[in-house]
Sequence to fold (923 residues):
Amino acid sequence: MFPTRSKNVLTFIICLLGAFYLLHPALHWSISNSENKALTAALHRCAQLDLIPHPPFTFNPRRQRSERYESGTVPVLIKNATIWTGMDGGMDIVRGDLVLAGGVIREVGKVEFRELGGLGNVTVVDAQGAWLTPGIIDMHSHIGTYPVPLLSGALDANSRTGGVVTPWMRAIDALNTHDDSYKLSVAGGVTASLVLPGSSNAIGGQAAVVKLRPTSEKTPDSLVLESPYNADGLLERERPRWRHMKHALGENPSGTLPQGTRMDTIWKLREAYSTAKKIKVQQDEFCSSVQNGKLSLRPFPGDPNWEALVDVLRGRGKIHVHVYEAVDLSALAELSNEFQLPIAAVHHAHEAYLVPGLLNRTYGPPPAVAMFAAFGRYKREAYRHSEFAPRILADQGFTVIMKSDHAVINSRYVLHEAQQAHHYGLRAELALASVTTSPARVLELDHRIGYIKPGYDADLVLWDSHPLSLGATPSQIFIDGIPQIDTLDFKQPRLKSVSLQKAPTTPAYDVEAANAVTYDGLPPLEPEYHPSVLFTNVSEVTTRSHDGTSFTSNFRSDRTTTTVLVVQGRVECIGTRCQNLTGSEDVPVIDLEGGALSPALTTFGSQIGLEDITVEPSTGDGFLSRLSAEGVRAVDALRFGGRDALISYRSGISVGIVAPRSLGVFTGFGTAFSLGALHKLEWGAVVKDVTAFHVAVDYGHLQLGSSGSSVSTEITALRRLFLGGSRVEWVDHVLQGKFPLVVHTNSADVMATILALKREIEEATSSTIRMTFVGGAEAHLLAREIAEAGVGVVVIPPRSFPYTWSGRRILPGPPLTELSLSSALHTAGVKVAIGPETIGGFVSGSLVRNLRFDAAWVASESAGIITEEEAIAMASLYVEQLFGVHIDPKEASIVAVRGGKLLSFEGKVVGMVSPLKKGVAIF
Ligand SMILES: *[C@@H]1O[C@H](CO)[C@@H](O)[C@H](O)[C@H]1NC(C)=O
Ligand SMILES: *[C@@H]1O[C@H](CO)[C@@H](O)[C@H](O)[C@H]1NC(C)=O
Ligand SMILES: *[C@@H]1O[C@H](CO)[C@@H](O)[C@H](O)[C@H]1NC(C)=O
Ligand SMILES: *[C@@H]1O[C@H](CO)[C@@H](O)[C@H](O)[C@H]1NC(C)=O
Ligand SMILES: *[C@@H]1O[C@H](CO)[C@@H](O)[C@H](O)[C@H]1NC(C)=O
Fold:
C-alpha cells in the first residue's frame, strides 16, 4: 500500500507543480488584479465610513408616490379642513383642502374637484372645518416588543442574557406584528413610533422607527421607516440611514448586574465606548494606509458586535438615553464629551428642568427632552417630577417631546400628555409640535413625516375637536394615504361643539412653575385654611343635595356671575349682597373669573394612603400573605401627607378610599380618609374607618400582584368563607349588607361566576349582598346581567386597554366603537364609578390628580349619554356609594375652580372648602 500511495502523492505533486508552472503567468496577473480589486474595495469601504446618513436614493421631495404606497389605495380629497401644517414653528394654519394620492400629500390649499381628473376615483371628505394635523409620532414606545395583552412568552423588550452592554441587539428582531396595541394606538392618532429596546441594559441596542398600519407584506421590516438595513437585512452602506441607539442610566440598568450600581453602569459604558473607539482607530489607520496606496494584508478591521457602536462614534447614530436624575445627567454629559457623542434625546429626564445647564454641557447641540406629563414619583429618580417641566424647558429653548413609553402609558393617549403639558403652560404650538414635528426632527425624518406639505407621507389625523381640547378624538387617521378606521360617516365626520374647536385657554401657573424650581422639585403642599373666604365672579355653584344622594345646582348662568361667602368652611350666602355680610375687611376675596364651586371628588384605585413610592417597599404597607381571610383593615396602616395625596387634594379630590394590597384572594377592609390631612388624629382625617371588604379574583391576578392561585381555588375559598360552617363576625356583616363585597377582576368569565356565586350565597343564607366590581374591562359583555344583579362597577382604567388576556375583550370607545365601557354600562342601568388611568395595568398615585380630566373625558366620549354632572358623580358620590361610604352633605368638601369648570382644561383648582376643617384651603 505504501509505495502505491507515495506514488500517488508524487504524481499529485508533479501535477501541482506542472499546473503551477503552466498557470504561473496567469496567476501573477490575477494576483495583481485581485490586489487592485482589493485596494479598490478597501478604498470604497473606507470612503463609505465618512458618509453621513441621508434619505434613501428612492426618496425625492417632489415625489408623487411613496415607496410605501399600497396599490389600490384610493386617492382622497379632504375639503374645508383647518390644517395645522407644523410649519412656521407651529404657527402656520391653512384653511382649505388637501389631496392624498400615491401615499403622499399631493396638494395643500384650494383644490377643485374637477382638477383631480387624472387621479381616477377619489374619495371626497367634507371636513366642515375640522382640525387636520400630521400623524402623531410617539418617540418612546415599546409597542410590539412589550406584549399586549401581557403574555410571558413575549416579554422581548430587554435582553436578559446579553449583559450590561448590548449595542448589537435590535428591537426589530422582537417586533410582533400582531400586538393588540397597534390598532388602538392608531385610533388615538398615532401613526409612527420609535420602538426602543428597554432600559434594563446600559446599552439596550438599536431602536426602529415604525409605522403602525398593517402592511400587505405583513412583515416587521415592512413597518420600518427608512431602515438602516436593506431589503436583504444587510446594513445599507452606500446610503446609510440613521441608527437609533438606546442607552440607559440610573436605577434600571443597575439591576442588570448582580448588585450593580450607577458606578458600574457608567464604567460599563466607558468600557464599551473605549472598545468601539479602538476598533474605530484601527479602521482609520487601515484606511489612511489604504488611501496612501498601501494595501494591508489584514482584512478591514471590524467586529460585528461592535459595528453599531463604531457607527455611533462616527456620528451615524442617534443616541437616546433613558436618564432621570441630575447625577445621571451629569455622568452622561461627561461621557458624551469624552467620546464626542452628541445626544439626540434624553428620555424621561424627570430632573432635567432642575439642571438645564447639564443639557447644554453635553457634546454638540443640547438633546431634546422626551417626557411624561403627570406620571412621576414612582421611584426615587422620578420623585422630583414636575408637571411644569415641559414648559420650563421649552421656555429655555430646549426641544420638548411628550411620549408614552408604551405600554407604560397607553400610546393611544400620548396626545393627552401633550394636552396636559399645554394645560400646565406649554404653548399650544409647542404642545402640538411635541408629538409631531419635534420628534420628526429629532429622528431626522422631517423630510417626510411630522408636517403637512406636498411630497410628505400622507400620515394625517382628522379630529372631532381641537387636538389640545380634552377628549379630542380622531374621526379618521391616514397612514400612507390609507384610511385606518371604518367609520360609517367617514365622508362627513362628526364634529364636537364649536367651543371645542379651539385650543383651550389654560390657567396661569407661573408661580407654581417658579416654585417647582425654587424648591428643587419639592414645593410645599400642605394646605393652609382660612376660616372665611368671599368668592366673586362665580358662574356656577353646585353642592350635594340634602340627603347626600345627588347634586343640587344652587346657581348656574352663562351670562352673569355671583358672589359666594364661605364662613367656617360652609357656604353662608350666595348672591351679590353677600359682600356686605363679610363683617370684616380681613376676609380674603378670591376672584374665580367665571369659574365654579363644585362638589369635591373621591378617588379609589391607587395605593395613596398606604404607599408613597411605588417601587420602594419601604415607603409602603406591603402585601397581605396568601389566602389570609382575616378581616385586615387598611385603616390600621394609613399614612398621611404623601405628595401624591396632597397633590390630589390640590386637584379637587378630598377623599381617598384605599384597600390593603394582597397576593391572595382576600384583600381586607378598605378605609376612607381625607387626602388633605397630615395625620390620622386630625379632626376628619379618617372619613370612615372600615369600608368595603375586598377580594381579588382573576386569571393571572395582574391587578393586585400575583397570587399564583387558580381562579377555581379562589372561588372555592370565597364559597367556603360565606357558606362554610364557621363564620366570622365580619362575614355576617357582609351578608347583612353592612359592607359591600368588592371583587377586583377584569374578566367577564370571573364576573359571571361571581354573579352566580352571589345568587347561590344569597339563596342559601337569605341575604342580599351589596357587590361592586373593580376593574371591569370586560363588564360590557354582561352589562345587563350585572345591572339585574344590582352590582356596580368601578371602571379602572376609565378608558379600557387589553392589559391582560382575561381582560382583553375591551370596548375601546370612539372612534372604534360608538360606546365606551362606562357609557355602555351606564346605558344598561349599571351604577358606574371611575378610577384613575393606569400605568401598564397598575395605578400610580401620581395620576390620581387627573381624576377631573378623566371624568370630563368619560362625559366627552359618551356623546351625550353621560352628562358632566353625572361624570362628576361617577368620580365622587358613586365611588363612595359603591364602597359603602356615606358622607354627610353638611360635611362634604367643595372645590373652588378659577377660570372654568372642574371638568375642563380651562379651570384651575384654587381652593378646597372644608366644613370639617372649618375653613377654606387656598392653593
Ligand atoms: C371607480 O369606481 C367605480 C364604482 O365603485 C368602479 O366601478 C370603477 O371601476 C372605479 N374606477 C377606477 C378607475 O378605479
Ligand atoms: C367650512 O366649514 C365651516 C365650518 O363648518 C363653514 O362655516 C364654512 O362655510 C365651510 N366652508 C366651505 C367653503 O364649505
Ligand atoms: C443653553 O444654551 C443656549 C444656547 O447657547 C442658551 O441660550 C441657554 O441659555 C443655555 N441654557 C442653560 C440653562 O445654560
Ligand atoms: C352693601 O353695603 C353698601 C354700604 O355699606 C351699600 O351701599 C350697598 O347698597 C349694599 N349692597 C347690597 C347689595 O346690599
Ligand atoms: C369675571 O371674570 C371674567 C373672566 O376672567 C372677566 O372677564 C370679568 O371681568 C370678571 N368680572 C368681574 C365682575 O370681575
Observations:
- Residues 576-577, 580 surround 2-acetamido-2-deoxy-beta-D-glucopyranose (ligand 4) (CB under 6 Å).
- The longest helix spans residues 2-49.
